[in-house]
Design goal:
Number of helices: 14
Structural class: alpha+beta
Number of domains: 3
Distance between the termini: 20 Å
Strand order of the largest sheet: 5-4-7-8
Number of strands: 15
Strand content: 15-25%
Helix content: 40-55%
Shape: elongated
Radius of gyration: 27 Å
Order of helices and strands: HEEHHEHEEEHEEHEHEEHEEEHEHHHHH
Length: 449
């Protein structure tokens, strides 16, 4: 029953995300076409066959059966016309009768609207919630598990991280210590303070690939102390007398300082554990046996934003506008870097390229864990991704149409219809092949997990 409800929830979130992204994208094309006096024959959310809709004026507004995109059909786009229609004189309301610069705006308007959507979302989030920032000076040191990706890079337990890519870190505004744009950079280094001296660690090639596979890189959670924030009633820790505020300082006589270190020890335990607990300045010991199914004892960490004395920054309207621009820019840069590394083979295509199933899973998880804030954050991220993918110079995508228009603008003549149709067919084969690959890849990833 739980699986069914999770599946239904994922489908509902996926449809909501796709609906908004496609609506905004196609609205860009639609409004630009209308602005320049072009006739729009159909505005469709989804691909054929058509399900429901209504015609107003010249335009059929409809919802179609295949919910993986949408389209705006504009009169006079040669690729959608019959040969006898192409031979006729262009009409004033047709796409083909307009100057190249107007057609370029119409073709790129969908991408522009997706970028605007992401920017509006980021700005709205910052304006509504402000920014909660942890001063890095409040974070004294980090725990680095043995065998982790972080250890491979050269991090050691007790390191204090002070810079990334030679840029000093002053504040951290989420549990994630390093941004995606940092981790996908081709020249990535970290500076740590170790035994009073600064040490520079050079990241290896394909670091983001290893992080994606192992899910074990450094976050602010690596700095959390072994202090209990929550005890679940009825679980082993509750039965052992542990309380919120207790700090586990040793397990079976071995010193414990960090939350992740404690969790790692407990999960690897095969028998009852002797915990040394610090409470109100005094220590005592108690026995606890981890749950046989989960391997846990039923405790949660302290709130990291409270523990590290986070500062809440209210930016106001104009400050939020600036923050929205920064977040949109950083996210777009990270996504572009990720695509570059996929194309060059620096990171695994199989591990990092997802299709509709992966999008549904990620969107549902973000919404479940972050509520509406998580929903809108993943919406902004996917909106930028859609914009970047669409502007790639692949026939059948907006970038392919833009490529033809740039050629026409430079040479003062259109590419021949034979060339256009040939490239369109190649583009269609590539896109269908890519869609089959990502769906199959999604299924393999699910089976593998």
């Amino acid at each position: 029953m739980e699986f069914i409800s999770s599946f239904v929830f994922a489908i509902v979130v996926f449809i909501a995300v796709i609906f908004v992204l496609v609506l905004v994208h196609e609205l860009g094309h639609f409004l630009a076409a209308k602005l320049f006096g072009m006739r729009v024959e159909r505005f469709s959310i989804g691909f054929p066959p058509r399900l429901i809709g209504k015609k107003y004026g010249d335009t059929d507004y409809c919802i179609s059966a295949t919910p993986l995109g949408g389209y705006v059909k504009i009169s006079g786009m040669a690729e959608e016309m019959e040969e006898e229609e192409i031979q006729k004189e262009p009409q004033p309301w047709e796409y083909r009768s307009k100057p190249v610069w107007q057609r370029i705006i119409v073709i790129t308007a969908g991408v522009i609207f997706n970028m605007i959507l992401a920017y509006v979302i980021f700005t709205g989030i910052v304006y509504t919630y402000g920014s909660e920032r942890i001063p890095i000076d409040n974070v004294s040191s980090f725990y680095i598990p043995e065998g982790s990706t972080a250890e491979e890079v050269g991090f050691q337990t007790g390191d204090r991280i002070v810079a990334v890519r030679d840029k000093p870190i002053e504040y951290v505004d989420s549990p994630v210590l390093f941004s995606l744009s940092d981790l996908t950079s081709s020249r990535l280094s970290f500076t740590v303070l170790r035994d009073g001296e600064e040490v520079t660690l050079q990241a290896p090639e394909g670091l983001i690939d290893k992080i994606s596979q192992n899910q074990d890189f450094v976050t602010i959670e690596n700095a959390l102390p072994s202090k209990i924030g929550v005890v679940s009633e009825g679980d082993p820790a509750y039965d052992a007398g542990l309380k919120s505020g207790d700090e586990i300082v040793a397990i079976n006589g071995e010193e414990i300082s960090y939350w992740l270190q404690m969790v790692e020890y407990i999960q690897n335990a095969e028998e009852s554990l002797e915990l040394t607990v610090l409470r109100d300045g005094e220590t005592f010991t108690t026995q606890v046996t981890p749950d046989t199914d989960s391997g846990l004892i039923g405790v949660g960490p302290v709130n990291l934003f409270e523990y590290f004395d986070a500062e809440t920054i209210q930016h106001g309207l104009f400050g939020s506008i600036g923050e929205g621009i920064n977040q949109t820019h950083d996210t777009a840069g990270a996504i572009i870097n990720g695509f570059q590394q996929l194309l060059t083979g620096s990171i695994s295509v199989r591990e990092n390229l997802g299709g509709p199933i992966a999008i549904a899973d990620i969107s549902a998880e973000a919404t479940q864990t972050g509520g509406m804030l998580g929903f809108w954050r993943i919406m902004a991220y996917l909106s930028i991704t859609l914009a970047i993918v669409n502007i790639l110079p692949i026939p059948m995508l907006d970038g392919g149409h833009l490529m033809f228009l740039i050629y026409e603008g430079i040479t003062r003549r259109e590419p021949s219809m034979r060339v256009k149709m040939g490239l369109q067919q190649i583009g269609l084969i590539l896109l269908v092949g890519l869609m089959i690959f990502v769906i199959f890849n999604d299924i393999l990833r699910i089976v593998g997990n």
